[in-house]
Amino acid sequence: MTKKYMAVNGCLHGKFEQLLSVLEPSQTELLLLLGDLQLLSKKQDLSSCSIPYKYTYGGDVDKITDFKKIMTDDSNKLTQDLHQIGLVLGIGGNHENMGLLELLPFGGFILPNFYYMGFCNVIKYKGLKICGISGIVNGLNFLKEREFGFSQEKGLEQTQWWRLNKVSSYHVRFFDVLPLLLYEENDIDFVMTHDWPQNVFHNEDPHIESQLLKIKPFFRDDINSGKLGSTIYDKIMDTLRPEIWFSAHLHINYETSIEYENGDFTKFIALDKLVPRRLTDGVKQFEFPGEDSNEDVGNCGIELDENFIRIQKWCYINKETILKEISTLQSDPSKLDKVLTNIRLLYQQGKNSIVIEDMLKKPFYEEKVEEYTREYLSRNLGINEGPIYP
């Protein structure tokens, strides 16, 4: 039997063709994309995508990303190679077409075998349980409620809104990741984030000096001051205790381990971006660790995680109460542990009343976003009226 592989890519920056050139698509069972997907299909998408001006090439989308070629031509080799992969699983970074990704806040299929994880999600695939968080953590916006360009007036008003908010739109929000902090099972295999946890810089690993700072010496001051990495990811890591935590963003390959008090540990793997002269630096391949199953369960084999959906639904039902608790952190961030304790207590008291109905649709495409999101809200979160985004 032919071996199947799992591949992980750091910052994609729209370079699907470069990525697939170093893979064997037909032997790749699972491909994890850690952000900066840049899923642009037309020039107008640039209004909701934060990309440095010199990389916009005068609005020539074909020079920015291969995604348009994939979306518009099923006959080319690139599209056919991509479709040979069992499942492509992606999260967002800080250079994304948020006008598209915000339409899938809870995840959904971009292509028949390409599933975007949404702002925060846990899915199951062939015996693996995978968590994904999109965006990067920014302290100024982390505690704020999320706003959506989709809900703005069309035309000039929406364009102006994106000009002001496209950067903040990819910032991680506390309410989105709260279900992970309430998660009660230690059975997550992989966590995917774009930026890094902070604890990987403070675990007395001698390789920080020899591998990380030797290549990126300008990180030293930010590491020493605690500015590099996210402390909320530290808490999520300690709660989930996954086998492997994958990150990208800093454009460097780096590996270390985080050990817990009981002797268990999480392996941390960061990957570089794709660079023409060293494409393999941005990709890591393993023998596929999941189950070798040919059972047709639909949806490319993806199943939503009932534990995550149950907690997420409870959070939306109790959103007003939760946001009041979160608001106390604006004036005193040191109360985080107390706030989490209060919310966990409320969840323990109410979790048994939550009934969920698993729902996932395939295939999913951009023109169906309202239908998909409305059905997700209705069936999984119990929200049947009001704006499409609670």
From TrEMBL:
Taxonomic superkingdom: Eukaryota
Gene3D superfamilies associated with the record: 3.60.21.10
SUPFAM superfamilies associated with the record: Metallo-dependent phosphatases
Signal sequence residues: none
GO biological process, one term: mRNA splicing, via spliceosome
Recorded coiled-coil stretches: none
Name used for this protein in its record: Calcineurin-like phosphoesterase domain-containing protein
Organism: Hanseniaspora guilliermondii
